Amino acid sequence: MASIEQVKAALAQAADQSNTTTNQIRAAIESTEQVLVRLRTVAAGTGHPTLGEAIARAEQSKQRLVEAATIMQGSSQAARQYMSVLG
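and the corresponding structure tokens:
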């Protein structure tokens, strides 16, 4: 059985990794926003449905990334809260 210190260390590592992952997701959000800007620029003046679909899918992707970042951040916070419970 792991000691409290070992558990706390593992929780700290998990929280740190969650923070790293959250930052990576945020970078993906920024990149997705750049994709959206490019798509919208290209789509200006045209009503082609395929471009509209590309924009809609990129927007959906961005929204899911935002959700993933929020959930991952919550995971990190919960791990740190449990660390504080352990003392």
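(Above: one complete record from the training split.) The first helix runs from residue 4 to 43.
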